[in-house]
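S.,

As promised, the heme C run. Input:
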Amino acid sequence: MQPRTVLKSVTLIAALVSLLAVAKAAIDGRERSESSSDDRGAAMRPAGSSMIEEGRRVFRYDTFGDEAWWGDTLQLHKALEGERFGGVGPGVTPRTALAVGLKVDVDALPRSLQAQLRAGRVSLDDVATTLALLKLNAVVGVTGHFQANGSLRSVGIQCAFCHSTVDDALAPGVGHRLDGWANRDLNVGAIVSLAPNLQPIADLLQVDVATVKTVLASWGPGRFDAELDKDGKAFRPDGGQAGTLIPPAFGLAGVNLHTWTGFGSVPYWNAYVAVTEMHGSGTFYDARLSDPAQYPVAARSGSWNTRGVPDLVTPRLPALHAYQISLVAPAPPVGSFNADAARRGKALFADKANCASCHVPPLYTEPGHNLHAPDEIGIDAFQADRSPTHAYRTAPLAGLWTHQKGGFYHDGRFATLDDVIDHYDAFFHLGLTDQEKRDLREYLLSL
Ligand code: HEC
Ligand code: HEC
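Predicted complex:
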């Protein structure tokens, strides 16, 4: 063996030993917690709760077989582990992973590791730590599959990748899961761009890999473009990026149409995303997307009528739906808004500012057909025209305080709530005073 190879093997073995110790502790811990939840007994669960629990499992841990895309095809796992562990490039250290917005589930870590992390005794600059975290299933929304020799075989993603974050209880980016919260730190484009093989995306879009990378780099944190692989529109006509903000997946019970542009119901969109965006194995059908004028890429690829075998998505839709409907919007922390101003803002929202005519409390969207033409809210039609509806959906506002990062409206065009209010004030000629605008803002922060 050459000295370099020996060194490589020694580091690999050292990393594996610590990894295995950590993984064993995790498995022990998981076994304990599983048996204790069984002890509570199925008889004590209220009706429907087992479906919700199943939905939580799917939302957090089910990849629907999308490893075939992220791992086998795009080879993302090779970039994660880096060449030291049999992949390519430098690998992704925990520091890099946190910097691109990935989150670590503290409850998946054995106590010993939590203590070491708290004491700053875990290297955030060692790819081996990333692999150990993946082995523990502690990276929110990402599942690694390992070979017997400790290197990665493949990787898949879950709904939680984009629609969960953590409460930073242990450290920034490390904490308890917050399901349904939009991860506005997550730089999806930067993560996908790491994949060694972007050729399949280039082929689909009929562009070169460099162009794919330019597009992926254009979104920035908290954004993703779920229509690009249908209509091929990578940029707005004015040259701006074409991604939309990741919306929350809580507070959706009672809301009719979903997504920024009202593509359909929650289960509609879940099938769309799981099959055509995450590339899970399953069925998705929507003849509206076969229109070659509006959706040239989908018409060409046939993704509007995807019949993946086996179907790992359709059987999960009921539980996934139940879980999302069960997620209520979290109340804002005490003291995070001015309660007196919010009380005055509530009256303005209903009367002078007329917001409640569209944002009907307590859904804060219209019961019924909750869509509006772009000119009804005074914005351009670019994103609306990428939807079969050609409209914008009245955004439900509960839990607004959780997703202020990245701005407001579908593409974050308004950096602050004050900007949103100024827009409405000008567009609807509301004649709001500065005081009234501030009151309205405090009310929005109280939802
Ligand atoms: C790569 C990031 C990403 C992943 C993974 C992802 N989503 Fe989304 N999700 C988005 C974005 C972006 C939108 C907005 C899409 C639009 O309006 O065009 C969205 C929209 C939604 C909506 C609509 C919310 C509303 O306000 O109406 C729901 C519900 C949803 N996603 C659930 C899921 C579920 C369930 C999964 C897993 C099957 C999932 N998402 C996976 C990024 C993601
Ligand atoms: C004509 C219907 C209508 C009226 C009236 C209206 N809105 Fe909206 N609102 C919408 C629609 C549609 C969207 C989604 C825009 C988008 O997706 O880009 C929206 C989005 C928002 C958002 C951004 C939500 C997010 O998640 O980014 C806020 C905040 C908001 N409205 C507050 C208000 C306030 C405050 C008023 C009153 C001054 C008001 N709205 C009046 C239809 C309306």
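Residues 11-29+63-192 form one domain. Confidence is low (pLDDT under 50) at residues 1-44.

- D.
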